Amino acid sequence: MKHNKPVSVTTSPASRSKKTVSHLTEAESNLLLARIAGQLGISDARSLPYMAAFSGNK
Known about the structure:
By secondary structure, this protein is mainly alpha-helical. 43% of the residues lie in helices and 0% in strands. The longest helix is centred in the middle third of the chain and has 14 residues. The model has no long low-confidence stretch (mean pLDDT 68).
């Protein structure tokens, strides 16, 4: 079974290692959520159970 290497959402390993979730840009957050949704077989990341926490909606 072949495992794909994770794809970085940042431009360099140095910046990736220093970033925390609270410092991700909106575009990076959306990309991560879309990838998580895809792995779960969900076509739209807005359907994720915890999406409101990431988007700031209550």
